[in-house]
Design goal:
This protein is an alpha+beta fold. The chain has a domain at 2-112: Gcn5-related N-acetyltransferase (GNAT) (Aminopeptidase, 3-Layer(aba) Sandwich). Helix content is 22%, strand content 32%. The chain has three helices and seven strands; from the N terminus they run βαβββαβαββ. The protein has a seven-stranded mixed sheet, with helices on both faces. Strand 4 (73-81), helix 2 and strand 5 form a beta-alpha-beta unit. The mean pLDDT is 91. It binds coenzyme A (COA).
């Protein structure tokens, strides 16, 4: 299930960020909660399907996505799924919902940056038709690493 993030999700989001990104992870206070429809920034979380998994943790956040909009360009600022929950389609569900919201709010293109060494994430984005268009050396710190810049444009169809 995908829904807007709540204040009660912030601890879980910060814990997932630490697990995924180590010292360069966003801190709890860097996450901004979704505002009403007009918001230029949205934060979505994934929670386990109550019918199939983790009935003991209903509503718990196991992944998150943050996107921001400036005019007709959106940026995917953060996407992460807690390790035990990967490869079950949760990242895809978050990204589909994030891109759908971007289109609804007027985005024509979506950009993102990803560490050059994070080949799994690049492959994941390529499945969504994100294309690499540039590289920026020394973009990341802790550790120093090149950024791969990718862009996405909606080509029609409801499957994104
Ligand atoms: C990148 C990331 C968000 C993907 O999340 P995810 O929940 O594992 O994504 P999905 O399950 O939708 O897809 C991942 C893979 O599982 C496969 N998959 C999707 N649904 C599946 C299912 N039901 N059963 C088995 N495999 C499945 C997909 O084909 C995909 O394969 P690929 O590696 O060839 O792309 C996750 O790996 C992550 O959090 N990584 C660490 C943080 C990170 O790198 N974030 C991006 C920084 S820019």
């Amino acid at each position: 299930m995908i829904r807007p993030a709540l204040a009660s999700d912030l601890d879980a989001m910060a814990a997932i960020a630490r697990q995924c990104f180590g010292p360069s992870a966003w801190r709890r206070g860097q996450f901004v909660l979704d505002e009403p429809e007009t918001s230029q920034r949205w934060t979505l979380v994934a929670t386990p399907d109550p019918n199939t998994a983790a009935a003991d943790m209903p509503g718990a956040c196991v992944g998150y996505l943050v996107m921001a909009l400036a005019l007709d360009e959106a940026e995917l600022q953060a996407l992460a799924v807690a390790h035990p929950w990967r490869n079950q389609g949760i990242g895809s569900a978050l990204l589909t919902a994030g891109l759908t919201t971007a289109l609804q709010r007027g985005a024509e293109r979506v950009f993102l940056e990803v560490r050059a060494g994070n080949l799994a994430a690049q492959r994941f984005y390529q499945r969504f038709q994100f294309l690499e268009f540039a590289r920026r050396p020394h973009y990341y710190h802790e550790p120093d690493e090149t950024a791969v810049l990718m862009r996405w444009r909606w080509t029609g169809g409801s499957g994104l």
